[in-house]
Design a protein that fits this description.
2 copies of one chain form a homodimer. The first copy, chain A, is an alpha+beta fold and 416 residues long. Chain A has a domain of 242 residues: Acetylglutamate kinase-like (Carbamate kinase, 3-Layer(aba) Sandwich), CATH 3.40.1160.10. The first copy, chain A, has 13 helices and 19 strands. Chains A and B meet through α1, α2, α3 and β2 of A and α1, α2, α3 and β2 of B.
Chain lengths: 416, 416
C-alpha cells in the first residue's frame, strides 16, 4: 500500500465486497518504502559485523511497518462506516518457527477471526509476521504478506484468495519483451509454480507453494484497478490459479515462456568420470550456501568428463574462487571456465505431460533462429535451455509465436 | 530519541552503566516526531466523525513507534558488543485496563526480564504501551514512556529510575522567566507532584504519581549530557525525587515557584446561596468532561452569592456556552462573566507544613508589587493565586527572590 490515499482506496474496495455480502479478511502489506526505511535505520546502527546476529531485533523492527498499515486500514474502513478490527500476527496468533527474517508459518488459530466475521466485522490480519513458540515476533521474509494472505485463506477455508499486485495478472511471457503477450485468465498451480521459480516475479514462490499445499484458489489482480468498477467485473479480472484441470482450462500445450537473466554458468573441465564426482564438486558449493540450478555432466572421453552447472550471478565469483581453492587440484582438473553472459529460457505447460515432442519443437525453433543451446534441463511440465544472453529476447519472441501464445485460445473466444 | 545518531549515543551510555556492573532495563521513547507522523496518517484517513471510535486502532498504530525504537536500541547495544533483547509491552507482559489511548498499567510480570538480566543481558522494554485482558494493544497516552519506565522500575524494585529528558533537572522555577532559577539536587515526591500538576512540564504527572505509589526513587537528568562523562558524575547529576524527608534535604520553606497560563476564570454572578448550588453549576461542566481547577464561592449578600472557578483555556468557550444554556436561567443568575487572560502562580514547599505565615508572606510580596489577587487556593504544601496574566513574570520573579530561591542552600554550600 502506498499513500494514505491508496489505503483509502483499498478501504473503499473492501467495503464494496463487504457490502455485497462477502465475509472479508484483509492482509495488507506495509506502506511502500516503509520496510526499507526501517531496515536502513538498523543498518546505520549496526555496521557490518559478521559475528553479531541482529535478526530477532530486525524482526521486531520490520514487523512494525505492517502493523501500522493494518491499523490505518482498519481506521479507513471504520471511516467508511464498516466495523473493522486489526490484529498483529501474535494476536491471531499466526504461529511460526523461530527462523527470524525468514520464518515459516506452522499454524494459524482461526477462532478470533471467525468470531469477528460472524459479528459482521471486516478483519485485518497483519501480514509478513508471526510469533514463535517462545512468544518472539518473527517475519516471513520479502513478499511475506502474500504468504500470510494465502495461509490465512487456507486456515479460513476461504472461497478465493485475491492478491492485489502491481500487475493485472499472469502473462504468457513478459510483455516488455513480447508485446503480443497475453494475460491468462487461468493457470494451473503447477504451471504457476514453474513460472514463479523461473523468474516470473508476479508472486513469491513460497506463497504459491503454500497455496498448492492447502489448495487455496488464488486470483492475481491489479491494485491499480479503480475501486468502483462493478464487483462482478473485478471478481473475474486478473488470473485465477486453480487446482482442477477441468475442461474449461485453456488447452494450450505450452502456457507460458519464462526467462531469467540472473544466472551464470561454470564448467569444471577434465575431471575423472568416477562415482562421487558431483558431490565432490557441488559439496563445497552447497556448504557455502550457494544455490545450484541447472546441472549437466557430459559424456566421458578417456575416463575424463566435463561438469557444468549454473548459479545465481551474485554467487558467480565466489563459486569460481571456491572451486579453484578447494576442488580443482584434488580432482586433477586442468581448467575451470565460466560465463556470466548467459540466460535461461523455459517453456511451461501442463499440456506437455500428455504431448510428446514439445521439447524437440522448442529446440527446432531455436535452431531455426541460429541460437546455440548450451545446457538443457527438463521437468514434467517445463523445458529450460541455457543460451547466450544476447539471444534472449529473440528466443522468447520466437517461442511465444511458435507455441501460438499470441493467439487468444479458442475456448476464450467462444465465451466472449 | 531523535536520530539513529542519538540512539547510538543512548547505546553507548547504557553500555557505560552496564559495564560498570549495573543490571539495566531501558525503556525508550519513540524516535522524535514518529508518534505525530503516525497519528497524522490516521487523521488523513479518518475525518472528524464524532460517532466513530478509532481508539483501539490508534493504539495499534501508535504502539509501533516505540516498538521500532526499542528494536533499534537493542541492535545498537549489540553493535556495542553487549547482549540485548527488546520486548514489546505484550511480551513482558505489561497489563493495562482497556482505556485505549490513555490506559492505566495494572500489573507487570517481571519473570522474563529478570531471567534475561540474570543472563547478563540488557533488557529493552517498549514504553508507552501494554496489553489489556483481551490481548488488545493499549497505549498510555502522551508521556507514557516515562510512566512505563517508572512502572517497570517499581516491578523490578530498581535502585533508581533514571529519566533522561530534554532538561537537566527540576528548577526552582522556569529559568526562561527567572534567570536566577537554580536546579534542585533533591526534591520530595509531594513537592514534585505539586510542581508537575501546576504546569512544570519536566515529567508527566502520572509518572510522578506512579513513582509515589510504589516509592521508586526517580532521577531526572539530561539526555544531552555527553555519554562519556564519568559514571559517578552522571549518577549524581540532575534532580533526585525522593521519599525520605531526611536531614540532608534542602531546608528551604518554599522549594519552587510554578505557574500556569493555560487557565481561564468563569464567574456566575448573583446565584442563590443555597445548598447544592456548587453541584448545580459544576455538574453539567463535569458531564461535558471539562476539568475544573480552582473553585471559589464568595460570601453571600442578601441571600445571593457569586460563584467562580477556573477551567483549561481550551474549554473556556464551551463552558461559558454550557452555563448560559443549561444553568443560568434555572438559578436566576443575571450574568456570567469570564476572563481568559489570567494565570495561576503557586509556591510549593514541604516546609510549608511546619511553618506558619508562608501564604501571608506570599500575599504581602504580591501586594508590594501592586498585583491584585483574584482567587486563592491552598493545599498542605502549596499556595496558588490567580492573577492577571500580564503580571505573571513579575510575580514569579518577586516570589523567587522573596523566598530566597536565588541562593544556593546552606547545606549544599557546606558539601561543596
Amino acid at each position: 500500500m502506498g499513500s494514505t490515499e491508496r489505503i483509502g482506496n483499498v478501504a473503499k474496495r473492501v467495503a464494496k465486497w463487504a457490502r455485497a455480502g462477502h465475509q472479508m479478511v484483509v492482509v495488507p502489506s506495509a506502506m511502500s518504502g516503509e520496510t526499507n526505511r526501517l531496515l536502513a535505520l538498523a543498518k546505520e546502527l549496526a555496521p557490518a559485523k559478521p559475528t553479531a546476529d541482529y535478526s530477532r531485533e530486525l524482526d521486531m523492527l520490520a514487523a512494525t511497518g505492517e502493523q501500522a498499515s493494518s491499523a490505518l486500514l482498519a481506521i479507513a474502513l471504520q471511516a467508511e462506516g464498516l466495523e473493522s478490527v486489526s490484529y498483529a500476527g501474535w494476536q491471531v496468533p499466526i504461529r511460526t518457527n523461530s527462523a527470524y527474517t525468514k520464518a515459516r508459518i506452522e499454524s494459524i488459530d482461526d477462532k478470533r477471526v471467525r468470531a469477528d466475521l460472524a459479528n459482521g466485522k471486516v478483519v485485518i490480519v497483519t501480514g509478513f509476521q508471526g510469533m514463535d513458540e517462545q512468544g518472539n515476533i518473527t517475519t516471513l521474509g520479502r513478499g511475506g504478506s502474500d504468504t500470510s494472505a494465502v495461509a490465512v485463506a487456507a486456515a479460513m477455508k476461504a472461497q478465493e484468495c485475491l492478491i492485489y499486485t502491481d500487475v493485472d495478472g499472469v502473462y504468457t511471457t513478459d510483455p516488455r519483451v513480447v508485446p503480443e503477450a497475453r494475460r491468462m485468465t487461468n493457470i494451473s498451480f503447477e504451471e504457476m509454480l514453474e513460472m514463479a521459480s523461473l523468474g516470473s516475479k508476479v508472486l513469491q514462490i513460497r506463497s504459491v507453494e503454500f497455496a498448492g499445499k492447502y489448495r487455496v484458489p488464488l486470483r492475481v489482480l491489479s491494485s491499480f484497478t479503480p475501486w468502483d468498477i462493478p464487483l462482478e467485473e473485478e471478481a473475474t479480472s486478473g488470473t485465477l490459479i486453480t487446482f482442477e484441470e477441468d475442461e474449461n482450462m485453456e488447452q494450450a500445450i505450452v502456457s507460458g515462456i519464462a526467462f531469467n537473466r540472473d544466472e551464470a554458468k561454470i564448467s569444471v573441465l577434465g575431471v575423472p568420470d568416477t562415482p562421487g564426482i558431483a558431490y565432490q564438486i557441488l559439496g563445497p558449493i552447497a556448504e557455502a550456501n550457494i544455490d545450484v540450478d541447472v546441472i549437466i555432466q557430459n559424456l566421458s572421453k578417456d575416463g575424463k568428463t566435463d561438469f557444468s552447472f549454473t548459479v545465481h550471478r551474485n554467487d558467480y565469483a565466489k563459486a569460481i574462487d571456491l572451486l579453484k581453492d578447494q576442488v580443482m587440484d584434488n580432482l586433477g582438473s586442468k581448467e575451470i571456465v565460466g560465463d556470466a553472459k548467459i540466460c535461461k529460457v523455459s517453456i511451461v505447460g501442463i499440456g506437455m505431460r500428455s504431448h510428446v515432442g514439445v521439447a524437440s519443437r522448442m529446440f527446432r525453433v531455436l535452431s531455426e533462429e541460429g541460437i546455440n543451446i548450451q545446457m538443457i534441463s527438463t521437468s514434467e511440465i517445463k523445458t529450460s535451455v541455457v543460451i547466450d544472453e544476447k539471444y534472449m529476447e529473440l528466443a522468447v519472441r520466437a517461442l511465444h509465436k511458435a507455441f501460438d501464445l499470441d493467439q487468444v485460445p479458442a475456448d476464450t473466444i467462444a465465451q466472449s
